Amino acid sequence: METGVIEQYIEDNVLSPFPQVLRTERPDKTINALTIGKVVIVLDGTPFILMTPVTFSDLMKATEDNYDRWHISSFTRLLRYLAAFMAVFLPGLYIAMVSYHQGMIPTVFALSIAGTREGVPFPAFIEAFLMEITFELLREAGIRLPRPIGQTIGIVGGLVIGDAAVRAGIVSPVMVIVVAITAIASFAIPAYNVSITFRLLRFAVMIAAALFGLYGIVITYILINIHLVGLRSFGSYYTSPFAPYKFGEWLDLMIRAPLVLLKNRPAEPKILDKKKKEM
């Protein structure tokens, strides 16, 4: 049995697309999880271990954050949150602006977009959908093929198909740029299982944007947040310390304060000993 199978059996909400258990094969990340009071599940015969409970902020942290100076770690964390937003909402925002809210685009930029879309037979949603599906196919093919060939397929395939699609007038150059930035942003997420979730949510946001414009994006954003607030991981609040709000834990949230200031364990999970153990 593999840890991925156990993960699916022990999740609080099996219908949620968000991972409620964190998998890793790094010993340093495992030790760090133990020092802050998390439970680690080790399975014989597999290099991966499971860490519980998990909050959304845990999925946005990388082990390397503790090894760099706090200025660098804080900057990279902020970049990750920006990347997460772009990975989910950027194509939808482009679709909404081009299809419904052209007046919100600066005139010069709007004329430039209109010029690049001249001759494209599809609406923005179909453009984005075709490009996203193509990139997902390339990504999946790159995973299944041997590593040297897979990397070549991903890079060369993306360049060739993108250039050919623009030359054929199937998609606009701006759409290729938007999809490429979105793909790069999804790779900036430390936890692979949550990056897959973002890729799935991206399609939902695109559909909402195609149907209702910015209103659809806002509604989708609200629904995602409602789901996250109600989600639990082994009884712990998934959105802690965003909600419930805990000011003291923001020192190790979107920024990472100097390690000498991070002496307490997080509020989730609820444990009696609040002092972080030495590594």
How do the helices and strands follow one another from N- to C-terminus? Answer: HEHEEHHHHHHHHEE
Percent helix among the residues? Answer: 55-70%
In percent, how much strand structure appears in the residues? 5-15%
Gyration radius from CA atoms, angstroms: 21 Å
Unreliable stretches (pLDDT < 50, length at least 5) are none
Largest sheet: 3 strands, antiparallel
Report the principal-axis shape. globular
Oligomeric state:
single chain
How many strands in all? 5
Subcellular location: Membrane
Membrane topology: Multi-pass membrane protein
Protein name: Spore germination protein GerKA
Transmembrane segments: 78-100, 174-194, 200-224
Q: Can you walk through the features of this model?
A:
This protein is mainly α and 279 residues long. The protein has a domain at 85-230. The chain contains ten helices and five strands; from the N terminus they run αβαββααααααααββ. The strands form two sheets. The protein has a three-stranded antiparallel beta sheet, sandwiched between helices. Strands 4-5 form a two-stranded antiparallel sheet. Pfam families: GerA. Keywords: Membrane, Transmembrane, Transmembrane helix. The chain crosses the membrane at residues 78-100, 174-194, 200-224. This is Spore germination protein GerKA.
